[in-house]
Amino acid sequence: MKETRVLIVDDEKENVRYLTTILEENGFTDIHSAFDGEEGLAKVAEVHPGLILLDLRMPKKSGIFVFNELKTSPEFKDIPVIILTGEGGFLKHLAELRDFHEDMESLGDKPTEEVLNRFIDSRPDAFLEKPIEPEALMAVIHDVLITLEEVVQKRCSQVNALRARKLQAGVVFRGNAFDTSETTRLNLTALAARAAGSNAPLPDDFAWRTTDNQNVPMTKEDLLAFHAAMTDWVYANYKASWDHKTTIQALTDIEAAEDYDIGTGWPDNNIG
């Protein structure tokens, strides 16, 4: 998303600087600008942006004209456009002049975006009224630019992180809590393999330390049962992770991927 080429079209240079700073502080580096509608259309053809931040009231060609031109162009109609304006009152006045009749409904309480729709041929990808707050701008840009692939990748990474936390969270075996760090699991596997390959029992004083530093005596059969239960538990965590990622990767809707609950379907940490 942050690799997207952005074009800012606004006749106020301070606004352009302000928006550029917000974008740069959030990782965007390929930023271009134009200072009137005519230059804006030329810049679109020149740099082929992946996102346009468009002011409405500008010289030469207004933002409304620019927007309608872009959305009727086969080449540029799919470029996301976020309309920025501080002209809510001005738009209401224009709409009332254009649509005046005796029983006309007042536009005074209408949202500016609703009034704007009387002048443009299709809806903008997003709309923000000035003054623009950085957090609001970045939230809107995120919603406009985020792709299903990025959401799926993010959600799968969250599944992996959750699996890692669960594998570190500890288990309860026969009423005792045990550590489940990777080192502990490797040590358990090595000891179980050695015990299974020998006919001799474990030493009488063999014990496994709990998470509260208590030594729990274990026979060979206890150790092998503990290892088998731990192995099954680790496998169940990986299977839950795999199932979640498979489901997420099959989703075809961004909202469904963002709302998907990754917290269900994991094995209990009581393993015996």
Textual characterization of the structure:
With 272 residues, this protein is α/β, with parallel strands linked by helices. The protein has two domains: 6-145, Rossmann fold; 150-259, no CATH class. The protein is 49% helix and 12% strand.
Order of helices and strands: EHEHEHEHHEHHEEHEEHH
Task: Please tell me what the overall shape is.
Answer: rod-shaped
Q: In DSSP terms, counting alpha (H) and pi (I) runs of 4 or more, how many helices?
A: 10
CATH architectural grouping of the largest domain: 3-Layer(aba) Sandwich
User: Into how many domains do the coordinates divide?
Assistant: 2
Portion in strands: 5-15%
Tell me the distance between the termini. 47 Å
Query: What is the averaged pLDDT score?
Result: 86
How many DSSP E strands? 9
Radius of gyration: 30 Å
Largest sheet, strands/sense/barrel: 5 strands, parallel
Helical residue percent? 40-55%
Low-confidence stretches: 88-113
The CATH class name of the largest domain reads Alpha Beta
What topology, given as strand order, has the largest sheet? Answer: 2-1-3-4-5
CATH fourth-tier homologous superfamily of the largest domain: Response regulator
* Structural class by helix and strand composition: alpha/beta
CATH names the topology of the largest domain as Rossmann fold
Topology:
Blueprint: E1 6-9, H1 13-25, E2 31-34, H2 37-47, E3 51-55, H3 63-71, E4 81-85, H4 88-98, H5 112-116, E5 126-129, H6 134-145, H7 148-168, E6 171-173, E7 176-178, H8 182-196, E8 207-209, E9 215-217, H9 220-250, H10 254-259
Parallel strand pairs: 1-2, 1-3, 3-4, 4-5
Antiparallel strand pairs: 6-7, 8-9
Helix pairs in contact: 2-3, 7-9, 8-9
